[in-house]
């Protein structure tokens, strides 16, 4: 601003440029990390599978750069927001957010968002990777909604500038392609409807905050192969091979409920409990319960009932030191368990339940630097399938630095 002399034409021109571009915000973070796992070549949800001869690695888990622009109307109210964010690492460069939002300023109640952005489902799914205490989201998030984002449009009810109870309420409802960033384009005409009703942190007592949410997902994918396997009452997957199956919509229906309770105490200390539970129906392949990235042309489809949860216990001693414990599970097939998961039942490793307990220490040097030391204990249920009769050795230690600006 020392260069801006408004008594001269050049200074006036620079001032107009400054006023124009002060609505632009550039931010980002990078997460270099070191990991070690119990077994070489182990499959992992802690940042991806390890290479066949590798049980430790350095990696750049995320390298994000985000550009925000907000346009103000003649009445000095924000009317349009634009966001572009990409992720760069040794694996390449990928778009993570690319969306625009229109803010309605008459009643200050509504907004409309379109583009590539996070699905409005659940709490953990929408907690940014730079703010989350655990290194990764839970197994269920990564399986059902890999990379969290999708192309679509959403309308939101979020009162702005209110002083009554409405300031604590937010409602989102949107329509999305379905495959998300798993695929480079949509592979069928079926769309996913996703909605979330949330209560923002509200003080229920002095220094005690409560927030909560309910989520609903109604979607599906096209059946391109005539074979569909569903679980019968005897605990066996039985095929339906009717030619009429081809082209119909196979279900993906999820329900979610979450709550967060935070108690502020001491010298900038806080204790927080978070709980989140999902359940519903997932259609995927025989070998995987992940949402498909492409249409199956030769592989059969499997429809399974699932449930899972995420639980956090976080304790901050002050603004710099925090301990965390996280427990999450995913049961991709609630109709089978233990030795009932066998080849005679046409079952696969995708039907096995996993439980993960993570413990960690987070040190915040300041707003720009964070250290995370986190250990995940991963347990799969014992089944009758070869290679899964006992627990797989896949516990993983993550040591991460996060630089942020």
Number of domains: 1
Q: Globular, elongated, flat, extended or rod-shaped: what is the shape?
A: globular
How helix-rich are the residues, as a percent range?
under 10%
CATH class: Mainly Beta
SSE class: mainly beta
Strand arrangement in the largest pleated sheet: 1-2-3-4-5-6-7-8-9-12-13-14-15-16-17-18
Stretches with pLDDT under 50, minimum 5 residues: 1-8
Q: Strands, helices and their partners?
A:
Blueprint: H1 9-21, E1 24-37, E2 56-72, E3 78-89, E4 92-103, E5 110-118, H2 139-144, E6 149-157, E7 169-176, E8 192-205, E9 208-222, E10 228-231, E11 237-240, E12 249-265, E13 269-285, E14 301-316, E15 321-331, E16 354-366, E17 369-380, E18 396-404
Parallel strand pairs: 10-14
Antiparallel strand pairs: 1-2, 1-18, 2-3, 3-4, 4-5, 5-6, 6-7, 7-8, 8-9, 9-12, 10-11, 12-13, 13-14, 14-15, 15-16, 16-17, 17-18
Protein name: Porin
InterPro entries: Porin_dom_sf (IPR023614)
What does this 3D model show about the protein?
This protein has 405 residues and is mostly beta strands. The protein has a single domain, classed as Porin, CATH 2.40.160. The protein is 5% helix and 53% strand. The protein contains two helices and 18 strands. A 16-stranded antiparallel β-barrel has the order 1-2-3-4-5-6-7-8-9-12-13-14-15-16-17-18. The protein starts with 8 loop residues before the first helix and ends with a strand. The N terminus is likely disordered.
